[in-house]
């Protein structure tokens, strides 16, 4: 056959030199690749369906098979990054754990909530870094202790401020609360180890100044409700519980050396501090995912998960080529059996048709649930 012009659709027409019959050659692989590229342009670049196909309905029909493509997590980096930032974000009933090096996504893991076993799945796939920036979750801390025991931990300053604000609001009623809120805000103005030493001195002075105040106790009184979490059997409780929680927070951070790891001289080079917040993750992958779901509202749960994986794949240092992830079963899934085929199949093992007492058959005697007339 030889080329004989093109059809009205622009496809090459082939003509037989012997009988004169003409036909066109189909390339399902090229068609599928174009459909996948159009699908990703719509999903990631928010292109409109009518710009990618003759109609939105045609676009949805042609790209429906693309939702069946699984996107595996990226391979681990060849060398351990200096800093890994870890955090989780929630979508509907799912939680997505993400690890980044501050510039690119390193790995991700789906789970129902942030717990130790879920974090271990993502930590054991990555080489241990020198420092990890975390939000302070108990599950993540336990997983880091088990999987990366030599890795130093830096508690995110923004999450510290969120905890203090939750305890005291932005306008504390007590003077001690106003002072500790100012000290928490001053953390963001610490730039070197000398500033850190000054801050620790001011915090120690705050503890000493309000130590007696934080020892005040309250006792049950008639017609006065107990604070939440205080059982009826308890005869007294500390009056300023929120301030004591804040003091316990900073005591743990200082004791575990999780407050100024990012400027520790043993960890950093002079003039090159490490990350101290998870902002690069919150403003990077997490924000990109929120924007993605805002542009594609109403996705089913399985489609939303697949869309998030495609977005995270595009944010890795070496994104996977989408076409290399396509398998034949994605484009041509096994056909579902028809209702007639299901009706023709026996529901269980074929039993003999002969009478058997073992089947519980036979003449039954006695009351059958009805009263005699």
Automatic annotation (TrEMBL):
Belongs to the transposase mutator family. InterPro entries: IS1249_transpos, Transposase_mutator. The keyword DNA-binding applies. The keyword DNA-binding applies. One of its GO terms (biological process) is DNA transposition. Keywords: DNA recombination, DNA-binding, Transposition. This is IS256 family transposase. It comes from the Bacteria. The lineage of its organism: Bacteria, Bacillati, Actinomycetota, Actinomycetes, Mycobacteriales. It comes from Mycolicibacter minnesotensis. Required for the transposition of the insertion element. Coiled coil: none annotated. Residues 321-348, 354-373 are annotated as: Disordered. One of its GO terms (molecular function) is transposase activity.
